[in-house]
Amino acid sequence: MRYVIVDLEATCWEKGTSPSRQEIIEIGAVILSGVSKLPVGEFAQFVIPMVEPALSHFCMELPSIRQEDVNNAQDFSTVFPIFLEWIGDDEPFVLCSWGAYDLNQFRTDCNRHGIPYPLTFERHINLKKAFAEWQGIKPCGMRRALELLGMSLDGQHHRAVDDARNIAKIAQVLLPHLEK
User: Fold this and answer.
1) Where are the domains of the chain?
2) How far apart are CA 60 and CA 64, in angstroms?
3) What homologous superfamily does CATH list for 2-179?
């Protein structure tokens, strides 16, 4: 069983951000081997938003995504099948994310674009919740979890593939405890 650690970046505004208004603008993911828990693949791709194609100033600042990054990207209905193909169906997987947001945003964007939501995504681990239960603490952000484990935050926070890499580092420690 492989683990697909995913992180999404989506359109956002300083005020008025809601999941129904947001659209995915970046998908980042890392596959961890089921046995060794070592990274065996990475996915990183921008997505052009269709409903509100102009990124807000807040949205460009938070994840450091430029308007031209998404302008030169393909839409979700093109990128999502590429993502699914990258995951592959040769071996079962569990989708993992830091919180429930990413899973819900996939549902929203699939619905928005008339794409069937993959039932395989229902095998999901909310690593944020699992980490809090394992540590006996309230749910915390990814950065705080890394600190608690004595790990550094690598790359650019709020960039999808960098966050997926950091979440994967946490998962490498957490998953063996969850498998027991």
Assistant:
1) 2-179
2) 5
3) Ribonuclease H-like superfamily/Ribonuclease H (3.30.420.10)
Q: Are 159 and 9 in contact (CB under 8 A)?
A: yes
Q: Any idea how long the chain is? A: 180
In a 13 Å sphere around the CA of 41, the CA atoms on its Cβ side amount to 13
| Residue showing tokens 């949205």 | 59
Q: In Å, how far are 36, 56, 111, 161, 169 from 141, measured between CA atoms?
A: 25, 24, 28, 17, 14
**10-residue mean pLDDT series, the chain (180 residues):** 96 86 96 94 97 93 90 97 96 96 96 96 97 98 98 95 98 93
Contact between 51 and 23 (Cβ < 8 Å): yes
Contact predicate 158/64, CB 8 Å: yes
Give how far Cα 140 sits from Cα of 2, 98, 179, Å: 25, 10, 22
| Residue 157 tokens, joined | 């926070």
pTM of the model: 0.96
| Tokens 């794409």, located at residue | 115
